[in-house]
Amino acid sequence: MGPMNIMLFHSTYGLTPAVHAAAARLKDAGHEVRVPDLFEGHTFDTVEEGMAYKDEVGKDELLKRAVLAAAPYSDQGLVYAGFSLGAATAQTLALGDAKARGLLLFHGTSDIAENATVDELPVQLHVADPDPFESHDWLNSWYLQMQRTGADVEIYRYPGAGHLFTDPDLHDYDQAAAEQTWKVALGFLATL
After folding, report:
1. Which of 5, 30, 104, 107 has most Cβ atoms within 10 angstroms of its Cβ?
2. How far is CA 123 from CA 6, 31, 130, 154, 158, in A?
3. How many whole angstroms separate alpha carbon 181 and alpha carbon 174?
């Protein structure tokens, strides 16, 4: 239903060319997109380096940066989106924002607070199957908990794809899965 305001969060690799390319794809579809840099200019070549930096900065500080990035726009009704670590961040913000219009998760999820509730928030998750960071047991439990919050959840699984399979700069990249993901995700945004 018209263009969305999307807040797109990067993965543990930082704000890489792939994230800018994803934002460009969303903009080409007519959406407003913002890509906050929670790592303040740092990008990494390996998950391990990114995780070490994340731990150094601390979860609370990263979340604070994310909240500050989103706050000026939240009145407009944001769609929160992100890749891997960024998806976990997007989920946390969306569940805490009564005006959120949607939640689009690529390759990641997060814990859900016991008391979290939303009003039929549309949620879409795209995940590799199997995914080393998102086990089947975890995803089943996550799905049930998300439904309990009142979210309207769809999960798309991509057999044989790598964890961050939408990133063309990584070994994980799977072109067919990535194209399918974008097709479905853009369709999802068009319904919000």
Report:
1. 107
2. 14, 17, 20, 6, 17
3. 10
